[in-house]
Every structure is written in C-alpha cells, then in structure tokens.
C-alpha cells in the first residue's frame, strides 16, 4: 500500500532530489554493473552490439561464441563471403541486414581506421550498422566516456521513474540523462538503467513489489 507520506514526498520531490535518490540506491545495491555481452576486444564488442539490435544479449552471446572462431579479427571478417557471415548469424533478428553491416563495418574499419576502433561518437557512426546508440555503447564500455546509450529499457525506465519528462525520442532522453547524472557516473548509470529494465522494471509487468525505487518512482505513485 502507498502511504500518504510516501505519496506526498514523491509528489513534491524535485528532479535533483529524484536523481540523487535513484543514484544513491543504485550505488548501494548495484555497485558493479556491466554489459552482459561477452567480448574480449573493441572489435568483438562492436560485432556483438551490431548483432544485439532487436535481439537479446543471451542470443547474441550464443552466436558470437562460434562467430569469433571463424572471424577472430576484422581482417577475416572483411575477407569473408556474405553468405558465410549470414550462416553464422541466421538465428538472430534481421540476419540479412546485419550480415551486410558486419561485412561493411570490417572493411571500413580496415581501410579508414587502420583496424583501430575509434572512440569518437561521430567517427564510430561512419561504420556500417553503427547508429548513435551503438556508438554510445562502444564509447562508454570500451573507452569509459560519459555517453548514454538509450535502448528500449533506458527509455522506458527513465520515463517511468521520472528521470525524464516529456521525452518522445531516444536523443531527448539521452540529453536529459546526461544533463542530470554526474559525468563520472554516466557509463555506469547506462548499465544500471538497462539491467533494472531487463530484470525489474519490465515492459509488460514491472516487478514493483520487488523494486527499491518505489518511493521515488512516478509510475508507482500512480498505481
């Protein structure tokens, strides 16, 4: 049951207070938060994130386990036939497009970036299959840059809690989060929100009774 005191506190909480409370909760309860994609190099994470679009990390990890045996570096991938790439990734979503993206990415990584995955957001987006979200993931996870990748989990959780308001696009959500989260915590906060959305604040049936954020959550306040 929602206590009147709890409701009143939630309703009068400023945005800064809400952010501070949420950050404090995650620092205490999820001090370590990392990507669930398995990778050993920037190249491997780049492949995994491209494959992860509209696909679960669990499925991607199954695919990449064998994928990297055949394509351990961008050179082997760039030299491969697209049909051979497709055979390795056909169990993920949109395998035709992703096979093209992976082949194009490998070739461009070699010809334009001397086989070095760039750390700059704009440079990363020059690679086939790499949009802003993917670029932000690479920048944050590999290079620990203060970038916020907004996937469906981050978008949903941020709006539900009240960290974002009137945000209709991932870019607007990204801007609001980056503005209000301390710069040194942004890479970590990206994982906090993803994992919270994946396991607690689920899309169809959020596990509110198991959530430690109800005192600060606008969604819970309206239940």
Which sequence of SSEs, written as H and E, runs from N to C? HHHHHHHHHHHHH
DSSP strand (E) fraction?
under 5%
Query: Given the C-alpha coordinates, what overall shape results?
Result: elongated
Number of domains: 2
The quaternary state of the protein chains shown equals single chain
Mean pLDDT: 93
Radius of gyration: 19 Å
Distance between termini? 10 Å
Helix content: 55-70%
Contiguous low-pLDDT stretches (5 residues minimum) are 1-5
Task: Give a brief outline of the structure.
The chain has helices spanning 4-12, 15-29, 42-51, 57-70, 74-78, 82-89, 95-113, 121-124, 132-143, 152-161, 170-180, 186-199, 218-221. The protein has 223 residues and is mostly helical. The protein has two domains: 4-32 and 147-221, Endonuclease Iii, domain 2, CATH 1.10.1670.10; 42-143, Orthogonal Bundle (Endonuclease III, domain 1), CATH 1.10.340.
């Amino acid at each position: 049951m929602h206590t009147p005191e709890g409701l009143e506190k939630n309703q009068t909480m400023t945005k800064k207070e809400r952010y501070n409370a949420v950050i404090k909760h995650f620092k205490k309860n999820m001090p370590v938060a990392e990507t669930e994609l398995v990778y050993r190099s920037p190249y491997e994470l780049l492949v995994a994130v491209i494959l992860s679009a509209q696909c679960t990390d669990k499925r991607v990890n199954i695919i990449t386990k064998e994928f990297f045996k055949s394509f351990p570096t961008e050179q082997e991938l760039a030299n491969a036939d697209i049909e051979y790439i497709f055979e390795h990734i056909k169990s993920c979503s949109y395998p035709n497009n992703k096979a093209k993206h992976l082949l194009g990415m490998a070739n461009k990584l070699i010809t334009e970036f001397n086989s070095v995955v760039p750390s700059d957001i704009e440079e990363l987006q020059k690679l086939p299959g790499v949009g802003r979200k993917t670029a932000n993931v690479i920048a944050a996870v590999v290079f620990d840059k203060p970038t916020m990748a907004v996937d469906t989990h981050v978008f949903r959780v941020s709006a539900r809690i009240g960290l974002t308001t009137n945000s209709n696009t991932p870019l607007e959500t990204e801007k609001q989060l980056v503005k209000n989260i301390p710069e040194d915590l942004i890479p970590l906060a990206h994982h906090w929100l993803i994992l919270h959305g994946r396991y607690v604040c689920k899309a169809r049936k959020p596990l509110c009774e198991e959530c430690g954020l109800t005192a600060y959550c606008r969604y819970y306040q309206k239940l």
